[in-house]
Amino acid sequence: MKIETKLAKFTKPLYLESGRLLEPWQIKYETYGELNENKDNVILITHALSGSHHAAGKYEGDRKPGWWDGLIGDGKAIDTKKYFVICTNVIGSCFGSTGPMSEIYPGSNERYRLKFPVITIKDMVKAQKILLDFLGIKKLKAVIGGSMGGMQALRLGIDFPGFAKYIIPIATTYQTRAYVIAINKAMIETIRADKDFKNGNYEVGAYLKGLAAARMIGYLNYISPSTFDKKFGREYVKTDGMFELFGRFQVESYLEYNGAMFPKWFDALSYIYLLKAISLFDVGRGFNSLEEAFSQIKDKMFLISFSGDTLFFPEEMRNIKKYMDKVGGRCQYYEIDSDYGHDSFLVEIDKFSNLISDILEGELDDRF
């Protein structure tokens, strides 16, 4: 599989949904496979909250491959012998695209930090479309993404109807519910309460315990209660005393480890800005109704949810299907039997990879 990592820089302003703009700005992206002569074999992969442009394969020295390596590659469901796959790092993130820790002007000593504008899912998709236009890509074979990536897939279908043959949102929602907004708020305030956060003026590369704690909160919603029970039960760490105040159950040790690792590779301000973008997500904003928003989608849409998702519940995606049926849209809904939780779209790829392959091959088109 041919892998290339690139950086696209733009001097023309990116006008944001808030009314503010980014100028200049850039997007980091990764490509897999070969673009055909007609440029009609392109699949756009959109990443979730803590994801990046590195969706598949390995860089030299990597211990682990990209976050969707089980799905993308030669002979895999998203077959890079057939398709040219693009995954971008969204604006606001911390892996090379313009974000809150970027320099305000190239070569300057001043970073945006809290001066960075609030960005939305709509802004992320607008930036991706500008990149695709720059690359001369006039049509997508498909756009595929889970969680926040699924939000981007939905948004692309609404904002750029007819641009993608297939829209495949996975484990997502159409309008972030109060429950998730509350979770995001708890994570944001945990970061802000860290004395080393310094109102966003922390040292570059600083290790923030508040970000570690926020990530632990997040894990409570990425993995289902039943999975926690199966993986850990009430097992206690063997080296800890049962009646030590800070002695740990195995599940506590697991959360501590994953939380502690997170600030080593993710930025606190990017986490806050992306959580805000998720909380703000509402496909109906700017339209008179949700029906009007969904009526914009002209492409074939395949919704994939997981029965045990306790962050974006299956009923939320079933509601998308109802709206699409109401406006006469072409939409199919598939619910994968799983009790793992929200992160099933990252962990249980074997349960839906054949479905993705069938969609891309057109095997399900006759069901519309």
Outline the structure in words.
The structure is a single chain. The chain is built from 11 helices and 12 strands. With 368 residues, it is α/β, with parallel strands linked by helices. It folds into 2 domains: 3-175 and 283-367, Rossmann fold (3-Layer(aba) Sandwich); 180-277, Rna Polymerase Sigma Factor, Chain: A (Orthogonal Bundle). The protein has an 8-stranded mixed beta sheet, with helices on both faces. The chain has a two-stranded antiparallel sheet with strand order 2-3. The model has no long low-confidence stretch (mean pLDDT 97).
The succession of helices and strands, N to C, reads: EEEEEEEEHEHEHHHHHHEHEHH
- Compute the number of helices: 11
Oligomer: single chain
* Percent of residues in helices: 25-40%
Name of the CATH architecture of the largest domain: 3-Layer(aba) Sandwich
- Quick one: overall form? globular
Strand content: 15-25%
Give me the secondary-structure category.
Answer: alpha/beta
Number of domains: 2
Radius of gyration: 20 Å
**Overall pLDDT metric:** 97
CATH class of the largest domain: Alpha Beta
Distance between the termini: 33 Å
Low-confidence stretches: none
Which fold does the CATH topology of the largest domain refer to?
Rossmann fold
Spatial strand arrangement across the major sheet: 1-4-8-5-9-10-11-12
In CATH terms, the superfamily of the largest domain is Alpha/Beta hydrolase fold, catalytic domain
Count the strands?
Answer: 12
Name a few traits of the molecule:
368 residues, alpha/beta, Rossmann fold, 2 domains, eight-stranded mixed β-sheet, 11 helices, 12 strands, globular
